[in-house]
Amino acid sequence: MLHERRIVLVEDDEIMGASLAQRLTLEGAEVQWHRRIARALPAIRTPRRPIDAVVCDIRLPDGTGEQLYTRLIGTSAPPPFLFITGQGDVAQAVRLIRSGAADYITKPFEMRRFLEKLARVMQPRDHGAAFEQTGISAMARAVDRQAAELARTDQPLMIRGLSGLGKVRLARQIHQSSDRRAAPLIVLDALREEISPAAMDDASRRAGEGTLLIVGIGRLSLSTQDRLAELLRGAAFRLVATAGMGLEARVADGGFRADLFDLLCAHAIVIPPLSERPEDAVWLAVRLFAALNDGRRAGLADPTIEAIRTHDWPGNGRELRARLTRAIESSRESLILPVDLFPERLAADDVKPLSEVREAAERAHIAAVLARTGGQVGEAARLLRISRTTLWEKMQKFGL
User: Fold this and answer.
1) Which among 79, 115, 261, 379 has most CB atoms closer than 10 A?
2) Which of 320, 319, 340 is nearest to 331 (CA)?
3) Domain 6-121, what architecture?
4) Residues 29, 363: Cα–Cα separation, whole Å
């Protein structure tokens, strides 16, 4: 159950600590026992030897378990925490659970119950499973597989693609799935502000043995690139960078160091645009609609799905989110129609009669309800709040 699991025990009580450390070792775990926060913190932030769980007392000589946990979640994704608490500290433990801690156990406790709780809070070691899908197309799945593989390496990495494709999201997932996930992820956004050599020094120091993520690395000045190249020679951190598709041009005109470009290109992920993955555009639209809708609209009409599939999406996922947000807020129908998503297409000579638009929405809605009920007309009529006869007539009219 605990074989070869790496566990940090933070407990200042000698009898309790010795008992737990001995039993965990007998269960096959690798145990590091620390009595103070100051010693436990660097032990937990050990990216080359990631920790599977932390067993931590609430009250410690140099602070509280809550302070230790808060310091960790401020800069990284900590391992699962199982807090040990007395009866008087239960409220604090519950507050920690709401902040993301895994569980707590109240003293005194049976060793069997402690081991069961510890086994439950520990996550499987399949870090690749932590990746969210980029899409359902073959190209998207290839990106996900490559990201999972590169999460297991320490080499500098570049994620490339057009704007709005989720490059930063993927970079964060790679860090969270890597052996450096317990150490900080420090982000420098060169797209939003100029990064000086001094800022690069500070970021590398704060990253420690974690990950330094540079968003829009092509925007760095040559002096900052020079400083980054120097830091990489003896870096403890891992560099992950994002860039658009025009970085080669900057190298050609002397605006970006060729050696830094070659280093990053050795391990690079390219996210294809949505225009090359129409099935992913529809897949993403359905997911975004579910997240944004909050019960306000019934769904996406069939013509809208087709419009999403055929649109070229120059702004990719960011454009799709913006259009869906506006459509959900402004639509006057229960279903989102193409005109809601693409109002600019409603040129004066293309305006359809209101009756035609209403019929299209009504047909799509009836078809959706029939699909939901598995074709059971009676149940569909009940949900639509019309008679079976009326539903039959509409089905005949719309060819359903």
Assistant:
1) 79
2) 340
3) 3-Layer(aba) Sandwich (3.40)
4) 61
